[in-house]
Amino acid sequence: MQIVSQLYVMHLVESKIKISEEEAMEECQKLRAKEAQISSLPIDRCILFARAKLKKDKSQEILPKVLERIKEQVSIKHNDKFDLDAFLKKKAGDETSKKEEAPKTETQKTTGQ
User: Where is the composition biased (Basic and acidic residues) (predicted)?
Assistant: First the structure.
């Protein structure tokens, strides 16, 4: 269940992240200016690294908002007065009485003409 919830959160976060080509190029230029290793990479690799960095940064911004929204949507209210055992017994009793009350259909015999 935890894996499913993590996948759901990841899906929500990724759906909110939009990275344009211009943003990726700008970030690539910044990374090339800072890192000597990245400046020696081809431009397509540099853009991949820039996209990954932008995605990581935006994910860190968006994740708390997404988690807060999920918490707001899912609020569990406990009913301390609710008796689960009594409810289940009542439900089981209703099902057996319905089975007993089922009408018994008999075929009517008709006289041949």
Answer: 93-107
**Among 30, 6, 18, residue whose Cα is nearest residue 55:** 18
Tokens of 36: 């000597």
How many degrees, rounded to 5, is the angle at CA 92 between CA 86 and CA 95? 140
Instruction: State phi, psi for 110 to the nearest 5 degrees.
Output: -110, 145
C-alpha Rg value of the chain to the nearest Å: 31
pTM over 0.90: no
The model's pLDDT over 75-106, given as tens digits with 9 standing for 90+, comes to 766 677 777 788 888 877 776 665 555 555 55
Domain range summary for the chain, segments of one domain joined by +: 11-74
Both structure tokens of 63 = 């994740």
